[in-house]
Amino acid sequence: MCGIAGMVDGRSSSDEKAELIGRMLKSINHRGPEASSFFIEDAICLGHNRLKIIDLSEEANQPFHYDGLVIVFNGEIYNYIELKVTLQQAGHKFRTSSDTEVLCAAYKEWGENCVDRFIGMWSLALWDKSKNKLFCSRDRFGIKPFYYYQIGESMWFASEIKALKLIPGFNFELNTAQINRGLAFGWVENEQQTVYRHLKTLPAAHNLVWENNQIRINQYWDIDLQNIKKSTLSWEEKKETFKSLFMDSVKLHSRSDVANGICLSGGLDSSAIASAFCNLYPETKIKSFTIFFEGAGKVDERPFVKEVVKKYPNVIPYYYEPKANDVADLWHDAAYQSDVPIWGSSHLAGFFVMRLAKQNGVTVVNDGQGADEYLGGYLHSIYRILGTKISSGKFGQAWSLLNGVASRENFSSKKKFDFLAKGIAGAFSDEDMMLKLEYRKYQPLLQDEMSIHVAKKPGSKLDNFLYHLIFNTTLQPILYFEDRKSMQYSIESRVPFLNHQLIEFAFSLTDEDRISPKAETKYILRESVKDILPYNIYARKDKKGFVTPGEVEWLNGPLKHLLDIDVKKMDWLNAGVAKKTVNEYKAGDISKAALVWRIASLDYWLKNFN
Fold this sequence. Notes:
alpha+beta; six-stranded antiparallel sheet; 42% helix
């Protein structure tokens, strides 16, 4: 895992480029503190900070030179060993054991289409001297970041926004529409848009090519709901196929020349990864890291983590409970590293997980992000299935599904009615309409209409919903903060559930394969790894998420100073509504605590980092 930065700039001298790239790399030194260097040739400048994970030798440092190519690369190509064999058979020679060299040879062999063969996470910039072309790419799910800024024929890029703010002439004009999406939904980016109007992000699964003083961008992969055929396998065969793909993914994600660890919450996803690892490598010790909050009304997952540790003694657990002074001490650094407002307290809590891993000597962690988004892990996934059954006249099945979720979640009568109402709304609305309806709840604070269109995709309502969770709504901000909180401590965070082969198979399944008729979420995952999971984790059906006391306890305690809001800096919002919302919170009304957190975080970001 590393940090990259660079530019295509024919206007500045080599000395000017060297001075700028030095400052850019210094600003993101936390991403790769073990080696730093840059390459300059005419208009091209490529810089790299290295965190050593695969091939720890200096020979594998970057910028890496290979037969007329120069590359800076952030991420991992997990199937590099298999690709290397194929490339050796095609005549390519290798001097290192790094995945970076395999990536270069793959580009030599297959050109821009090389990314189609990669299983991994990446953002990269590769200078092809023979073609006078800069080829950039970002992984299929946007796990690794890539930002770029263009003025005329010049372009700058980097792993983090803070590095690009150092560009002479950077325009700090805010993208208030994107910030409003953050206030409403916690989104960080949307398509190419960021919090700054003139700063762009390369979307997931896209390539960017600079050639002949022009930029072209193309999408190289998508979940093709139009052409994915629903699986004809039996239920038993589906379970075996899913398990095989999942185990293969965990095996690939375990490749490393440094110690692996696991972020272990006690939920289904992280416990499945831990169980898979321990079955694949029963003689290998692995450290796990768990944050907990003790006390009435708080979430403490240690009993479930201990079920994993009991079943698999090769898991060495570490636990930590953030205290008020910890939160106060961490806040500013976390806010700085995030580059955007910290839209939820769970993101802040995640920094403590990574710090715990760093303190205990781990450089690579595996995390459970992604499964909820394509396997129907969130309760609001069930709205879409309810809507489908209602719109198709299957009222008995809809009622049975509603009763199943209400019983499991212990809904009150009002909650059950509200859940049904949302299912009915889903019967007559597409995802675009549902998002716009949700956005209107935040007016008149947000005085604009939401400027986003979520395209309707082929397939079921659930397929549409899950697709947009991955690429447009929930997963993207999760991955954003996953990267920032891990890189803060020079840790590489890997997400085994985000393997495109696994996800393509998941979208070939029926709605009922992912959410059972009894409203069991992530059904295929739960049943396929039943034999390796601790029973009490297999049997738990609640969905806790990463719940923290932040929006109430922290914001009324160690972060109380954040409530001194300066609405003048948020002049595009309705100032009266903003003041009223915060004042009501101060007076004890916590019904809008999540929104108050976002307003306070935005205010802090505007005062300190913009």
